[in-house]
Structures are given as C-alpha cells and as structure tokens.
Amino acid sequence: MRALPKAHLHVHLESAVRWSTLREIGAANGVPVPDRPGGDHDGGHDGEHDDGHGGGHDGGHARGGPAFTDFADFFARNALVRACLRTAEDFRRVAREFCADQAADGVRYVEVSFTAAAHGERLGDPDLPLAAVLAGLAEGRAETGMEYRVILDHSRRRPVNRAWSTLDLAGRYAGAGVVAVGLAGDEAYPVDPFVAVFAAARDRGLRVVHHAGEAAGPESIRRALDPGLAERIGHGIRAVDDPRLLAELAERRVPLEVCPASNVALGFAPTPAAHPLPRLLDAGLVVTLNTDIPAMVGVTLTDEYARLRTGYGCSDAEIAAIARAAAAASFAPAAVRRHLDAEIGRWLAGQPVFDGGPGKSSRRATRAVLRLAAARRPAPRRRRTDAGTPPVGHRSATAGTSPSADPASRSADGPPASAVRRTDAGRSDSLRLFAVAAHPPLSDPDRPPFGGSR
User: Is residue 68 a contact partner of residue 265, using CB atoms and an 8 Å limit?
Assistant: First the structure.
C-alpha cells in the first residue's frame, strides 16, 4: 500500500515532528522533552495550538482507543512542541524532515497546515517561522520530488486580529507555496466572527478550508457550507447524524477530509471498526483519507489506506477511487492533479508507478536558495504594529505581492525582548527570499510535476 501514489490534504506540520527531533531541538533550547510521547510535558499550557496539534513521528499511540487522558493532555502536548520550536533552523529542519517522511510513505503531493501567525507572534517576527518552513519544504522537494502546498490555519479560539494577520501572511507568500487559509480549533467557538476574513481570502484568490463536524454536530457542517466559507470540510464525520445533510453533501460533491485514527485518538469515534467512514462512502460522499495528527497517534497515511482493505473490505479499485478523489479535491495545479491521477491508474493496473525524481529545475532552485542563505544577512527589520482588526473589505497594501517585493511592510518599532535568538534576528528577510527563489510560481508552465523531466 505504500506504493500507492497519494495526495495528503489534512495534516498539521506541528503534529508531524519526529519525536527524536523534538528531543534534540528541546535539548538545544533548554526545553525538557520526555523519552516518548505521553510522558510529562513541560513548556506550559495555554491551548495556543489547539488547531495545530503536536507530537513526534517516531513515537505515538496504537490506534485502539483514545490517546489522551483528556483535552488538557492534548493541549499540553501542543504546548510542548510550541515551546521547542524557537529558531529558523528549528522550523526549517522539521519541514525538511516532514517532506522526507511523507515521500517515504508514498505521498506524492501534500497540503500541510501550519499555524504561522501564532508562531510569529510568539517569536516577535511574523515572517520568520513561515519563511523558514517554506525553505525547508523547498529543500525537501529538491531531495524527494514530492510536491507540496501550504495552508495557513487559525484557531477559532483566538482573536480575529490574528486571523487577519494569517491572511496577510498568506497573501505575501502566495507565490512561494501558500495556497489557502483554514479555520481550525475548538468547534464550540462560532465561525461567524471570521466570515469577513474568509471573504477577503477568496477575493485575493486564496482557497478556503474549514474544520467542522468532528466534535460539533451536523449544524457546524451546514454553516461551513455557506457560500465562501469552505471548499472542503475538515473531518465532517458528524454528517452521518443527519440523512438530509448526507444527501446534500453527496449532491454538491463537497470533499471531506476524513482522519480515522485521529478521530479515534481524540475520542470522536470509539474504535476504528466503529468509525463512520464506511457510512460516508456508502452514502456516495467525496471522501479523502488523511492523518491529521500522525505523530501523536503513531499512524501513517499508508496505515490509513491499508485499513481500507483490512478493516473495511475495500477493493483495490475502491481504494484507487479514494486516492483519486484526494488528488481531484486538492488545490494543486492541474498538471500535478493529472499526473497524480495517471500514477494512481498505473498502480491499479499493476504497472510501475513513479516516473520522476528531482529534476534540473529543482536542483537549480536549490543552488539558488543556498546562495541566498550564504549571503550576508541584512539588518533586522521590525515587526508591524498595525495588527488590529481591519474593517470588512480590508486589503493589505502588500496583498498579492511577492515577499521580496515588500521591503516596507514593517514599522520602526522593535519586537519584544523575548523574541527569537539574536542569531536569528536578521534572518527573516533572507529566508523570505530563500523561500520565493526555492519555489517557482504556482503557474510556472516550464516546471514539470514531481521534479521530473518533460
């Protein structure tokens, strides 16, 4: 099943950190990390990344039941990951390793969610975490040939101001791999305060995703179906509680990002066997298969696809149809979607699947970004101070421009003393250039899919 070419649409970067890496980064930054997931957690708990999740790829939980004692335990693990990630190299490393792990699992295209604005606030530099992650992803693509895009997510527990900051980041980095914004977190918090943000995102050409129907009931899915709020539904499993909603989702062909092992680990499904996935398929919905928090629950996307066969009795043709649904529901360029669909067809036919590795365009990009990284660092720029909630219809002055064309996007006011280490203070601008040079524009017609040659 690992050989099946896969598109992975719902996975949080903070949830995919290798536990061994987290321990190394924690030690370097003075943050104690347990020997394995589930031990005592330091780093504090404020629920900051309740949408980002956390954990480690080489640890995790067997998928037989809830992995957490309660949500406080779940949030504490998120806080631990957040406490460890402090420097540009930390973010860059976890992104590069994420690519390696996904590619080794047969993932050919991934849309990874990242809570960039929250990290930027914490470190006193709104650009550094995202730019470093994009640099790491670009390196990962050069090494593996796997394609990627980034979804910037925001927790609905957090202020609307930060959602606008997330949108501004997405607009500035849209040419460097950011393709969408998403709303995640505790579904008990209403979506209504964020409607204007989503409308502005659509106006700027960004895609929109929305977590619903995981903890909350069918009504949360109905709200997400309102015009402009979501093109895909994250989770959506509670749709089975409302037959009319099931019929509507099937008719409208709204893709669901279903994450069985995560749902079981968080207590939203009692066991894998009792998960509503088969009922969603039987109702004719567009179902995509994902991991959500892979490192925390010790699951890979290959594991999830294997369970389709061993746990739910799906045939290879049905498994291929689910893989194709994920490719079609992705925000990838059309050429990537077509190429991935063809690879899935070859897998189903028992033919050799992968026909491309890192190509010349990828190697050129890598050389370019390494030159930029070695260049003399510019003087530190300062964070913006106009982060208040914009009025409805607000547009950033830099929206839609490339990061390298945004030299005046900061004020002269300095970041807090508790910001990133001094060694990283001047790196943000170079990293922004790094990210843009490493990732050709999404519409680049000369760039073959998966790093291969034409």
Answer: yes
Please list the active-site residues: 214
Kindly list the distances between the CA atom of residue 387 and the CA atoms of 82, 90, 390, in Å, as whole numbers in the listed order.
22, 26, 8
CA–CA distance, 145 with 109 (Å, rounded to integer): 9
The domain spans of the chain are: 6-348
Distances (CA, A) of 378 to 387, 411, 432: 24, 16, 12
Q: Please return the burial class of 19, using the count of CB atoms within 10 Å of its CB with bins 0-12, 13-18 and 19+.
A: buried
Q: Are 230 and 202 in contact (CB under 8 A)?
A: no
DSSP 292: B
Q: Where are the beta strands (DSSP E) in 275-408?
A: 287-289
- Residue 148 is predicted with a pLDDT of 98
* Beta-carbon count within 10 A of 28 CB: 13
Q: Which two tokens stand for residue 28?
A: 């370097």
CATH class entry, domain 6-348: alpha beta
What pLDDT was estimated at residue 71? 64
Taking the chain (454 residues) in runs of 10, the rounded mean pLDDT of each run is 98 95 96 77 40 41 55 77 96 98 98 97 96 98 97 94 96 96 88 93 96 92 84 97 97 97 92 97 98 93 98 98 99 97 98 62 44 41 37 36 34 31 48 55 53 52
Q: Report the alpha-carbon distance of residue 137 to residue 114 in Å, rounded.
A: 12
Backbone angles phi, psi at 87, to 5 degrees: -115, 165
Rounded to 10 degrees, the C-alpha dihedral 405/360/99/345 comes to 120
Amino acid at 112: V
End-to-end CA distance of the chain: 27
Three-state secondary structure call for residue 366: helix
